[in-house]
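Notebook B, p. 112. Complex prediction, attempt 2.
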Amino acid sequence: MKQSQLLFKAQREAPKDEKSVNAKLLVRAAFVDKLMAGVYSYLPLGFLVLKKIENIIREEMVKVGGQELLLPALHPKENWAKTGRWQTEEMFKLKSRGGKDYGLGWTHEEIITPLVKKFVSSHKDLPLFVFQIQNKFRDELRAKSGILRGIEFIMKDLYSFHKDEKDLSDYYEKVKSAYFKIFARCGLKKETFLTLAGGGTFSKYSHEFQAVTPYGEDLIYLCRNCSLAINKEIIEGEGNACFKCKSKNLEQKKAIELGNIFKLNDRFSKAFDFYFKDVKGQKKIVFMGCYGIGLGRLMGAIAEINNDKNGIIWPKEVAPFLVHLIPIEASKKVIKAADNLYDDLQNQGIEVLYDDRYGKGAGEKLVEADLLGIPYRMVVSEKTLKQNSIEFKERGTEKMRLIKISNVKVQMSKL
RNA sequence: CGGAGAGUAGUGUAGCGGCAGCACGAGUCCUUCGGGAGGAUUUAGCCCGGGUUCGAAUCCCGGCUCUCCGACCA
C-alpha cells in the first residue's frame, strides 16, 4: 500500500476528548475515528488490524469445530419475550412505523436457539457448534475507555449444543484452550489470565479472559499458589481467599476482560422447548454453552499494552503491515531504489506500507512511523545507498542494522 | 442515572464584558530532506437556544455533546 493513497493523517496531539491510552494512540494514528461516545469507525489501518484479529479468531474457532454463520442484528420482540429478557436494560429498543417492536441484538441466544432447533431432532445431530462475527449493541450506562467499552462493538459469539452436561463440559474446556491460543497469537500471551467470574442467571460461575494492564477497568486477584485468577465480585463472596487453595496471598491487578465463556446449560433450550431424541428414543433437553470475544476491545487492549512514548508497537501477527518502507531524501536515485524494493517485497508476498509521500521531511516520516507501530522499518536514503543497503529496525527496539539490498529478500524470508 | 470537569479554525490552545489571537494542519510557490525543516502567501473558528447589557466567546438560565469517578456490565 502506498501511504500517499491511504486514508490517513497523523495527529500531532491527542484529541482532548480522549483520555484512555488506546483511544489517544489509535485516533492519533488514524486507526479509528470517534462518531460518538462508545461508537467508533475503523479506518483502513484499523480495519486491517481488525481483520487480522478476526482471522486468528476464525481459524481457532474452526479448529474446535465451529461453523461460521451470520445472524441478524435486528430482532423481533417475540423471541426475547420468550426468555423474559425483553426488559433487559442493555437492549436498545425501537419501533417500526407500524408500531412493531424491535430490539438490536446485544447477544444471540434468543435467535440461535430456535434457529438450530429447526435442524436438530436426534442425538445424531449433536453436538453442534456455530459462531458469528458481528456487531452487537448494548445500551451501557456509560461507554468509556475508547474502544474498550462501546455501545456498538464487534463480537465473535460461538454457541454450542450438546446432548448432555458432560459433553458440554468437555467442549467448554476445548474452547478455553482455543481462547488462550487466540490471545497468545494476538501478542497477549503473558498478560492474559483465566478468571473465575459470575455466571449470571445460568450457572454459578463463568470464566473470563482478563488481560492485565494498569488501564484495565476490572479488578482481578491472582493467586500465587495456583495459577488461578478471580474476579472481584467472586472473591468478595469467597471471603477474600483463593477459590481453589484458600490462600489469602492474592495479588490485586487491574485488567480488561477480553472474553467470557458460559455454560448456559438448559436455560435457553428450555425457554425454546428445544429437545432431541436420544438413542433410546427418549426426549432429552439440549445443553448449551456460549463463548464471546470482543474484537475491538481486543484490538484496544493490544494497543493499550503494547506501546511506548512514541506510539503503538503492534505484535507481528496483528500489525496492519509487516514492513514500513521509508525513503528519505527525495532524490531520484533514492526514490527509484525504494520503488524497486517496494515491488520486490510485494512480489515476495510481504505486506508493506510504502511511505511515498512527497515533500515530507525525514523527521516527520520517522516520527509518524513510530506512531503507527509497524513491526519492521526499512529506511532507504543516500547514506544507505552508498553501501547498497537499507537500514533495518524493529519497532520497540533501538538496534538498527544495514542490510544489503541484494540480501533483503533472504533476510525477510527468515523473519 | 448520581457526582466532577470541559466545549473557541481540521487539531491543540490563548483571550474571561469592548476589533477573536497563536501554533500545527491544509492550499500555492521556492528552498530543504536521518527524528514533526525554513521563507513567502492564502485558508479557516467562539456547541445550540434564550436572557442581562450600549456592547457577550466572556455573566445568567435552559439544552446538547465529550471526558473522568461512581453505579451498571453475558
